[in-house]
Fold this protein.
Amino acid sequence: MGGPLSIFRKVVEFYKDPDYFTNLQKIAFPIMLQQLVFAGLNMLSGILVGQKGDASVAAVGLAGQIAFLLNLVHFGIISGAAMFTAQFWGRRDIPNLRRVLGLCLMLALSASLIFFALAQFLPSQILSIYSKDPLVIELGARYIRTFSWTFLFVAITFSYALVMRSTGNVKLPTTVSVGALLISTFLSYSLIFGKFGLPELGIQGAAVAMVIARFLECVTLLTIIYTRGSPVAASFRELTGFDRVFFGRVIKPMLPVMLNELFWSLGITAYNVIYGNMGTQSYAAINIVSTIEQVAFAVFMGVSNATSVLVGNRIGAGKEDEAYRYAGRSLGLGVVGGIFLGILLHFIKAPVLALGWNKVSPEVLQNASSLLTIVSLFLWVRVNNMTTVVGILRAGGDTRFSLFLDGLIIWIVGVPMAYLGAFVFHLPVYFVYLFAMSEEAAKWILGINRYLSRKWINNLTMHVEGLEAGSAPVEGPIL
């Protein structure tokens, strides 16, 4: 066995690959920037809503759960499609890439229409699952009826943006998205408080602002894509040019990803039902912490998504050993970065809470502070789990194990532990949250073992046979 110096040399040698860091930052940085802006502006929006008191914070948080569930359904559909688009791009198979995009749009829009109908006609009934507070339900129902119009635009924008990232083009969707978020933040401030001659709508103003911003984002992105000749600028005929055989061979590996997101989102819903039934103050604290931790996760979401593209491209190009090394490097970065950011978050939590949420009750602030301590401790574990599921297992087509790891462990471990903490032991919300983190610990152990086994590496493009004329791969460099 070697000493510390020998281990250090092996680590340096493992990361001694300029191509990895060049390609990673090329994809990760724009996504990271987008996520940081999104999380930062979302936190600012949360602070603005927080000026209206505990009930408003809880109402927007509850209404956001419907959007959160739809986002996870979309993510399941789109990330499932991205397994194929990343690998098709690795062999420059544009026609099949566009067929997968069309299939993705069909599924995402169908999901959006279902959620839109629920938000329009049954908002109070759905929100009453999370809370029994009449004021919170009333405010949340009005908010989600307006906000739900964004569901239709998001299905289109997300589908095109994620497939563009599979081709290595992250700057365009990032720039458009950041612009939309800036517009949303300005309009939210103006409409919540009645500034610049606009009416004062309270928290309803935040919903109106987001609808306008998402509409502009969708129109702008599509206009640029179809006027600049992007690889994803598919005609209607190209988008719908798949037959039953193609549909079946693509949907089979995608289905576990969609089920994964369904089961995981229902698990998160169960967590929020537990927190919501612990009282408005407990749920308001959870909502504040969720807003802050989005900023912490923004950096690592960029790395995770970039890893997915890089690993998928290399598997599609037949470079499996390189894909394995790239995945391992990203896991290592997640550990170091997660520990560092967790320590930083712990030391800045007090001023962030004091400056941002000074209008909420002392009980909410105390709960939020304790929750952030737990978030800091588990940040590196959760970052690694995100990279394992999104950046490695799905990129390698290992969707069945991903379903077990991400979609079922939450029900086997996390939800039962949270229920025990809340309703059997009657613990404070921060201890219930700590019980729920047992899910992340279990996922980390199982996920690392799966990575080391190499069983997750599968070339999906080899399973889509019978390609139509004109769809032969084109030679070209991968990222």
